[in-house]
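Bumping with the actual sequence this time:
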Amino acid sequence: MHILVDADACPNVIKDILFRAANRVGVRLTLFANRPLKIPASPHIRLVQVPSGFDQADNRIAQLVAPGDLVITADIPLAADVIAKGGLALNPRGELYTKDNVRELLTLRNFMDELRSSGVDTGGPAALNKSDRQRFANQLDRLLAANLNG
């Protein structure tokens, strides 16, 4: 398993959980960002800086993901691409995207985009809280354990 992270929008607390997990189990962790990020010195962790621009990190991740890889992203279209390629996708709140729920989430996302483009203020996502971080860490541990045992 290779963990690929859509790092520009990934909260630092989630990156810290990923850094610890990569070192603990020795899994490859690659962060994709269009700006420099501080990462710990580790043989398991690397940063790939992509050009600035819309969806550059997403496009690079979608090109590189392989079956069984895990992608950390809140981007639903990227999650759909990952699942179509046989990868796993997990958002920073600990929600695992599946073939079933990603279609529903894409429909909802498109509907919200239409509302926003018509001038409706739909607000933004709630701040990441302690239970979100715990849910993410637990889901990550389950996926890593399944990979190590499977």
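The tokens above came from a reply further down the thread. Residues 94 and 140 are 8 Å apart (CA to CA).
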